[in-house]
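hey team, just a heads up i'm posting the complex here instead of the shared drive bc the drive is being weird again. everything in one block, sequence lines first with there labels, then the predicted structure for the whole assembly after. its two chains so it's a bit long, scroll down
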Amino acid sequence: MNRLMIIGAGIVIFFGLVAVLAPFIASHDPGQIDIENILTGPSKEHILGTDSLGRDLFSRMVFGARISLLVGLIAVGISAAIGILLGSLAGYYGRWVDAWIMRFVDIMLCFPTFFLILAVIALLEPSIVNIMMIIGVTSWMGVARLIRAEILSLKERDFIYAERAIGASDIRIITRHLIPNAMAPVLVSITLGIAAAILVESSLSFLGIGVQPPTPSWGNILSEGKAVMGAAWWMMLFPGLAIFITVLGYNLLGEGIRERLLRS
Amino acid sequence: MIKYIFNRLIGLVPLLLGITIITFAVIHLAPGKPTDMETQFNPKVSMEARERIAHLYGLDKPLHVQYADWLKRFLRFDFGVSFVDSRPVIQKIGERIPITLGINLASIILILLIGVPIGVSSAVKEGGFYDRFMTVFVFVGFAIPTFWLSLILMDLVGVRWGLLPISGIKSLEFERFGLFEKVIDVARHLILPVAVSAFGGLAGISRYMRSNMVHVLKQDYIRTARAKGLKEKAVIYKHALRNALLPVVTILGLSVPGLIGGSVIFESIFSIPGMGRLFYESVMARDYPVIMGVLVIGAMLTLLGNLLADVSYAAVDPRIKL
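-- predicted structure starts here --
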């Protein structure tokens, strides 16, 4: 364990716990409207203040952590699955399979990803499931390239020849031997990918086409914060900090893992 | 050289075709018809009228025919007319591109001017206090959400301190200004957006520059340069920097889609009439022709950026023979 990894893992675990234990941590019902306490600053009753409907910001942020992390994790799960599948097919079979898949990767990489995401989200109606799907479907190219490159070199190694010699099927070789051995660099990419997915989700929610209110997400709280800019600094400061620290945590963890892999 | 560029251009054709297919598929696989926007909320429009509109835009033909038609017109740069205001798509995009490209170009220049020196000095004092401080800065740069940074800067610099304008690219009284005042006015409007869009990229470039420089400084030719008694400055700036700078060209090319994509966020926050904002508005209005136009042109700009990067790499690196 190096220092980057420890700090990163600490942040990741902390926010993970907040998300899982949200109902026990939140001091109020995140949806409870209180028109007598609209936009009150941080106080003993509302430690991070209230929003423009008098809802408790702290509780909304705690529940927002669930959404942000869920979207990040599942989106990256989808992108890793697609990337690993296509990357290993391309790397293992080579020839025209490789040519077509890698050409497809090149084409996908040409699009400004955020444009593509925005177009699909707005056409499909913004729902949490759609957001996870579309982030996953537009961000698998890096993983595919990594896996392919690893498998290209792994498949010429002796233990793979040995597997073939004893008559192991292609599927067995790919799933039992090649992918597990190719996963190390992908792990770094996945960790960094979670950070990126959280950023994309919050950007979308901020633009009003991500997670829809009243469901709280850090991005849409910040979007409300923009509307009351100047009148309620807490609405802008805290959700932004939460996104920033979480993304920082996953980035540090990813870099920490990378450093560790480089050394070993 | 010309032959190389020509071959590369030929190689772009299949990519371009793929781009158009994906764009077309994305728009047409989505539920909801483009005619909905013009007719759905209008009770006076009958089914028959709806079909007439669909026919007008060719939406009643089979998909592959629609694609072929669209591709034919695309080759003449004819993206059709906007559903929203019936103006030609290419014209709408054309007036927005210079703004977005201008801001991105300015931020790339800013990134290079600041990022390269940061990377070089971190690498030279590898592991020192400055290097560690800059590593922290780089992580902050990677993690800070652009829209949050924009809001904070808007609130502090624009609203609280009143130093800079926070929306649009020119003042209301712009037309009455002299030329010099006009330039100053636009520049003042662009300081915050350019700063924000440069901040994220800065982290990437300085980190990349640092690792290149660390790598180069360990090469034999650097030891040779030192051994023959060259001053440290000459070693770093003449021998090491040049070699470490080369791959940065490629990275700049690769960062084009990110920069263009990011323009959606800061252009909508700062109300800048660029391509990102146009795209956002078109997406909200389901203005299919404009969405397709911007997607394709955005992807083409990326291709162009990569091509430029490769060509200039080949031009500056004497080891690459064309």
